[in-house]
Amino acid sequence: MAKQKLQFSPDNPPLLPLSRRSVLQALGISSTAAVLGSGLAQAAGSAAAAPGDAAEPGAQILNMTVNGEPHSLKIDPRTTLLDALRERLQLTGTKKGCDHGQCGACTVQVNGRRVNSCLSLALMHEGDAISTIEGLGTPEQLHPMQAAFVEHDAYQCGYCTSGQIMSAVALANEPYGTSDSDIKEAMSGNICRCGAYSHILKAIKQARG
């Protein structure tokens, strides 16, 4: 019995054999495309619907006074006082150094007491009075501590200077003595990487005297 030859035409294409691998590959490609497409669509929708602070999940209102001016901010609960001052109020005189409370460059005063603002959540200061280097003096009328730092060259790179000054000013309200060792102990939380400690000590003694 003679075998019949199969005739193929555009209306009768040949059937290619399907393997398990080719089926899985086809399913994998289509499902990946679907996931990526839906993910991109969701991201685009979220970006369009949440352009500003109003869409921050869990954002809370913070009211505080900074350098004598009242401020009301809607912030993420995880925001530090340092970031609120620098990024939301543009008070960049307060520096971010180690961001671990070890260098003192971020020192500000809260109700007259010095605080490492990098270690303090902003929402902890509802209703508080915050003082930064910008509120201490002006170029035309320096605070006595600022003037003493200038007179004694108590800075080099200047990165730690605002924290040093804010800490030194707060000493007037703290129970420390006036001897060199007392001042060094009181200022031990403020690090000067340039090593201008002897000049800083002279400036503080002059301003306190």
Automatic annotation (TrEMBL):
Coiled coil: none annotated. Residues 60-136 form the 2Fe-2S ferredoxin-type domain. It comes from the Bacteria. Signal peptide: none annotated. The keyword Oxidoreductase applies. PROSITE patterns: 2FE2S_FER_1, 2FE2S_FER_2, TAT. It holds the Pfam family Fer2_2. Keywords: Iron, Metal-binding, Oxidoreductase. Gene3D superfamilies: 3.10.20.30, [2Fe-2S]-binding domain. InterPro entries: 2Fe-2S-bd, 2Fe-2S-bd_dom_sf, 2Fe-2S_ferredoxin-like_sf, 2Fe-2S_ferredoxin-type, 2Fe2S_fd_BS, Aldehyde_Oxdr_Iron-Sulfur, Beta-grasp_dom_sf, TAT_signal. PANTHER family: ALDEHYDE OXIDOREDUCTASE IRON-SULFUR-BINDING SUBUNIT PAOA, OXIDOREDUCTASE, IRON-SULPHUR BINDING SUBUNIT-RELATED-RELATED. This is 2Fe-2S iron-sulfur cluster binding domain-containing protein.
